[in-house]
Amino acid sequence: MSETETTAQAPSAEVTNLGEVRAIAARDPGLKAVPEVILHMKFINNGSVVEAGETPASLTAQQWFNFLSLAVPTAYQALAGGRGVFRLTKVELSVLKAEAVAEGAAAAAAGAASAA
Q: Which domain of life is it from (predicted)?
């Protein structure tokens, strides 16, 4: 078996929130070896995000970055040249995407209700 392969199994797709993902990872240290997804962020001179990997369709790159920064701040690594990356597992990414879309929909509904 090569160094990049692992025998650890990722949590099932039935996991619905990041807390569950972290609880499972805490019980099974082998999950640290699960391959990561690297989300690339690209910034312009004023610090705004102009490109963000795996951005849900309902969010802008800046909204996705803001959400990830609050949800998983320790997963971020700043790089040179106005770039940075978030390192997540596939399960974490899918859970975070679902949470971000739900949060965005709730904020949009609240905004529409207050405008009425």
A: Bacteria
